[in-house]
């Protein structure tokens, strides 16, 4: 019997968008229209934290994908027409690196920042750009600066000023907490709920293939990876946005319910690894949170976690006088940073039995490829404020929102006070990263 998952109350189901059902492999999209600052406020500083663009699968994912495709291509015949393409399909995807459409995502993001915040840029105020040292992250940062430069008609070309080694202290990567757990248990529990019926169907369409559930999950991811790798990246930032890339034929093997199950698997993965569900998840975002506070207050970084004290103490590698900052990172690190800041809190832990339709923890809205968080500092009548947008959606900041000023606005001093978890270096959690278990 096929399991049915209820995600929203009856008659409230939104129109299904396949490209927004790929979890962390979804392409960037604006979750909401950008909301300009309230009347009487102007943006004075922008801090951007952005994920790299679309990439090829990582090695572990690629091994499962290749295994699944090989099994499907080993059978004598297919019983369903949607599998016929496999007779001549050749798998050619690379591993880890940015794909052309991912480069374009970053390029367009840089152009959009210049168009939105051009008033903050002049010869003395060029964006300060950092990146974690992973190749796809560095490439994304360089594509972002190229897009920013092109949008300014090459008047302003920000350099990539700092590359933080992923072998050392790095606030843009989550690798410094040896005792951090994983989401393996929760992932396995949900896989056992959503995947068996799909695996059985695929095996009936390819008799003798012998797919297992983890390979079914990998094949769903191939819909996203193959689509992204096949997309054109020829359009310049100034041209109209190109039509979405044609979907991979692998996408036709799955139903909307299948993709919904896959999408929720990503939610569980992020929540129980570097999110709130991991005992040492959000502490891995504390270093960046403290760097953000330093920029917002133009004061020295105070942190004893992931920061590189030498770099952060040097005005050349951590200036405090810029109007635009752009940092390039990975999805897992960004999720930890969201948690450290207090974003996307859930009233209850995510369940491995099925999703809660009321949750705001939706990975495809938080960290799609080229996803970004923008922290704006504003000068308003009577004071300085902060607001945060994630993929253009204004965050409520219920932990410090100011009354009578505007939705999502928080007084700067109140925002700093609200960050007690980061300011206390994780309230003891950082030490647990290294304590004997």
Characterise the protein shown here.
Strands 1, 2, 3, 4, 5, 6, 7 and 8 form an 8-stranded mixed β-sheet that branches. The chain has 437 residues and is an alpha/beta fold. It is globular, with a radius of gyration of 22 Å. The protein has helices at residues 59-73, 100-117, 135-151, 184-194, 196-205, 213-230, 256-273, 286-297, 309-312, 331-341, 363-366, 412-418, 420-423, 429-432, and strands spanning 41-51, 128-132, 160-164, 324-329, 372-380, 383-390, 393-394, 410-411. Strand 5 and strand 6 form a beta hairpin. It has 2 domains: 25-55 and 98-179 and 274-437, Rossmann fold; 58-96 and 181-257, no CATH class. This is Phytase A. GO terms for molecular function: acid phosphatase activity; inositol hexakisphosphate 3-phosphatase activity.
CATH class descriptor name of the largest domain: Alpha Beta
Which regions are unreliable across 5 or more consecutive residues at pLDDT < 50?
A: 1-14, 234-241
Hey, roughly how much beta strand do the residues contain?
5-15%
Mean pLDDT reading:
93
Class by alpha and beta content: alpha/beta
Q: What percent of the residues sit in helical stretches (DSSP H or I)? A: 25-40%
Based on DSSP secondary structure assignment, what is the total number of beta strands?
8
Report the biggest beta sheet as strand number plus sense, adding barrel if it closes.
8 strands, mixed
What name goes with the CATH superfamily of the largest domain?
Phosphoglycerate mutase-like
- How many domains make up the 3D coordinates? 2
Measured distance between first and last alpha carbons: 43 Å
- Supply the CATH architecture of the largest domain: 3-Layer(aba) Sandwich
Number of helices: 14
Gross morphology: globular
Give the helices and strands as they follow along the chain. EHHEHEHHHHHHEHHEEEEHHH
CATH T-level topology of the largest domain: Rossmann fold
Radius of gyration: 22 Å
């Amino acid at each position: 019997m096929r399991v049915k998952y209820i995600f929203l109350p009856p008659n409230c189901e939104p129109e299904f968008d396949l490209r927004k059902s790929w979890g962390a492999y979804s392409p960037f999209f604006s979750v909401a229209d950008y909301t300009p600052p309230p009347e009487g406020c102007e943006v004075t500083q922008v801090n951007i934290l952005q994920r790299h663009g679309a990439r090829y699968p990582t090695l572990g994912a690629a091994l499962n994908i290749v295994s699944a495709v090989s099994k499907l291509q080993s059978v004598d015949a297919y019983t369903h027409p949607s599998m016929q393409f496999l007779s001549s399909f050749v798998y050619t995807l690379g591993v880890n690196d940015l794909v052309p459409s991912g480069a374009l995502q970053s390029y367009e993001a840089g152009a959009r920042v210049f168009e939105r915040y051009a008033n903050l840029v002049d010869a003395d105020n060029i964006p300060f750009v950092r990146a974690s040292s992973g190749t796809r992250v560095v490439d994304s940062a360089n594509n972002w600066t190229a897009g920013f430069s092109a949008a300014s008609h090459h008047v302003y070309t920000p350099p990539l000023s700092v590359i933080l080694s992923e072998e050392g202290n790095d606030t843009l990567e989550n690798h410094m907490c040896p005792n951090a757990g994983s989401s393996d248990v929760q992932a396995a529990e949900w896989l056992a709920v959503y995947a068996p019926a799909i695996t059985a169907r695929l095996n009936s369409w390819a008799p003798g293939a012998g797919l297992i559930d983890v390979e079914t999950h990998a094949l769903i991811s191939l819909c996203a990876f193959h689509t992204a790798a096949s997309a054109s990246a020829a359009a310049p930032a100034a041209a109209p946005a190109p039509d979405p890339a044609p979907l991979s034929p692998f996408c036709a093997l799955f139903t909307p319910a299948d993709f919904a199950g896959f999408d929720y698997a990503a939610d569980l993965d992020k929540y129980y690894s570097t999110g709130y569900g991991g005992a040492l998840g959000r502490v891995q975002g504390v270093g960046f949170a403290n760097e953000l506070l330093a920029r917002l207050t133009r004061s020295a970084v105070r942190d004893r976690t992931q920061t590189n004290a030498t770099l952060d103490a040097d005005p050349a590698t951590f200036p405090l006088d810029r109007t635009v900052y752009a940092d390039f990172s990975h999805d897992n690190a960004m999720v930890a940073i969201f948690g450290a800041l207090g974003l996307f809190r859930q009233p209850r832990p995510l369940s491995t039995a099925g999703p809660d339709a009321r949750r705001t923890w939706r990975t495809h809205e938080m960290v799609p490829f080229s996803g970004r968080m923008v922290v704006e500092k504003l000068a308003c009548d009577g004071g300085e404020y902060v607001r945060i947008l994630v993929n253009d959606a204004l965050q409520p900041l219920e932990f410090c929102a100011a009354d009578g000023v505007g939705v999502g606005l928080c007084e700067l001093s109140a925002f700093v006070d609200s960050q007690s978890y980061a300011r206390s270096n994780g309230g003891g959690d950082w030490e647990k990263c290294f304590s004997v278990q």
